[in-house]
């Protein structure tokens, strides 16, 4: 179980960080999800852990969004959407093994662009794209995790890919 959690920790953190926009909230959601998996599902076969974990994480993220809506209604005069907490987290995607400074700068810029574009997707499109592309989950597994039909997953994924493609193409056209 420890090896499994170590393997998914980074990707799951980034999913939670995309969804919340906050480093601290992402860590809380990740930790809560891991604890629930270990506490309630450790006895399950290891091939079931990944879909179970992401379903737990999705439920935690959904609960976080509901809580934020209530919080924003109650504290409407405060700006609760500051992103100061997550200014440094995209840097964690960088590869430590790359020796060429120019490659590091180019890769960092590409990662920053990709993250910026992912943030422009709807919450469901973000989560669907990350579960399908980053985690390689099937349409059926993603549908189960997100609590919607396989057709909805296909639609969300298709729209996410098309929007990302058009945003990246627009960046490319501006660059030249």
Automatic annotation (TrEMBL):
<dbReference type="GO" id="GO:0003899">
    <property type="term" value="F:DNA-directed RNA polymerase activity"/>
</dbReference>
<protein>
    <submittedName>
        <fullName>RNA polymerase sigma factor</fullName>
        <ecNumber>2.7.7.6</ecNumber>
    </submittedName>
</protein>
<dbReference type="Pfam" id="PF04542">
    <property type="entry name" value="Sigma70_r2"/>
</dbReference>
<keyword id="KW-0548">Nucleotidyltransferase</keyword>
<keyword id="KW-0731">Sigma factor</keyword>
<feature type="domain" description="RNA polymerase sigma factor 70 region 4 type 2">
    <location>
        <begin position="118"/>
        <end position="164"/>
    </location>
</feature>
<dbReference type="InterPro" id="IPR036388">
    <property type="entry name" value="WH-like_DNA-bd_sf"/>
</dbReference>
<dbReference type="InterPro" id="IPR014284">
    <property type="entry name" value="RNA_pol_sigma-70_dom"/>
</dbReference>
<keyword id="KW-0805">Transcription regulation</keyword>
<keyword id="KW-0804">Transcription</keyword>
<feature type="domain" description="RNA polymerase sigma-70 region 2">
    <location>
        <begin position="11"/>
        <end position="69"/>
    </location>
</feature>
<dbReference type="GO" id="GO:0003677">
    <property type="term" value="F:DNA binding"/>
</dbReference>
<dbReference type="InterPro" id="IPR013325">
    <property type="entry name" value="RNA_pol_sigma_r2"/>
</dbReference>
<dbReference type="InterPro" id="IPR013249">
    <property type="entry name" value="RNA_pol_sigma70_r4_t2"/>
</dbReference>
<dbReference type="GO" id="GO:0006352">
    <property type="term" value="P:DNA-templated transcription initiation"/>
</dbReference>
<dbReference type="Pfam" id="PF08281">
    <property type="entry name" value="Sigma70_r4_2"/>
</dbReference>
<comment type="similarity">
    <text>Belongs to the sigma-70 factor family. ECF subfamily.</text>
</comment>
<keyword id="KW-0808">Transferase</keyword>
<dbReference type="GO" id="GO:0016987">
    <property type="term" value="F:sigma factor activity"/>
</dbReference>
<dbReference type="InterPro" id="IPR039425">
    <property type="entry name" value="RNA_pol_sigma-70-like"/>
</dbReference>
<feature type="region of interest" description="Disordered">
    <location>
        <begin position="86"/>
        <end position="106"/>
    </location>
</feature>
<dbReference type="InterPro" id="IPR013324">
    <property type="entry name" value="RNA_pol_sigma_r3/r4-like"/>
</dbReference>
<dbReference type="InterPro" id="IPR007627">
    <property type="entry name" value="RNA_pol_sigma70_r2"/>
</dbReference>
